[in-house]
């Protein structure tokens, strides 16, 4: 009778690697992610600044549509915050709500 070998589950492999003292196998992906995070934020901020400048110049969207676009974005953002309430730290949630409310108050006056 032939015995077939069954591959271990991924969690068992991770446990074996960690037990063997090879911390690099489990720590490397998060280290790479953490090191690339600042560059990702710079890219996001630069993209937002360029897109905003182009929008204000009337090159991306007509200037007349920026006000309704901001209103809709604030409402969608508040809906997203409501859907994922409790996911982020309290300060971040309150700050996001405050910014959205400030946009709504400023535009609906």
Concise account of the structure shown:
With 109 residues, the chain is an all-alpha fold. The protein has helices at 10-19, 24-56, 66-83, 90-108.
Secondary-structure-based class equals mainly alpha
Give the biggest sheet.
none
**SSE sequence, one letter per element:** HHHH
Categorize the overall geometry: flat
Query: What's the total number of strands?
Result: 0
Distance between the termini: 82 Å
CA radius of gyration is 24 Å
Counting DSSP H or I runs of 4 or more residues, the number of helices is 4
Relative helix content? over 70%
Task: Estimate nothing, just give the exact number of structural domains.
Answer: 2
Strand residue content = under 5%
Query: Would you identify the regions where 5 or more consecutive residues have pLDDT less than 50?
Result: none
Give the mean pLDDT.
78
Descriptive keywords:
single chain, mainly alpha, 109 residues
What does this molecule look like?
- The protein is an all-alpha fold.
- The chain has two domains: 10-60; 61-109, no CATH class.
- The protein contains four helices and no strands.
Give the arrangement of secondary structure elements.
Blueprint: H1 10-19, H2 24-56, H3 66-83, H4 90-108
């Amino acid at each position: 009778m032939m015995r077939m070998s069954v591959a271990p589950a991924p969690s068992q492999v991770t446990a074996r690697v960690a037990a063997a003292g090879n911390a690099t196998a489990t720590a490397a992906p998060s280290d790479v992610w953490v090191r690339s995070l600042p560059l990702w934020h710079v890219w996001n901020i630069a993209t937002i600044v360029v897109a905003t400048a182009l929008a204000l110049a009337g090159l991306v969207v007509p200037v007349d549509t920026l006000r309704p676009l901001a209103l809709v974005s604030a409402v969608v953002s508040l809906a997203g915050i409501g859907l994922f309430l409790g996911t982020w730290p309290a300060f971040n949630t309150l700050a996001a709500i405050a910014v959205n409310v400030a946009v709504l108050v400023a535009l609906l006056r």
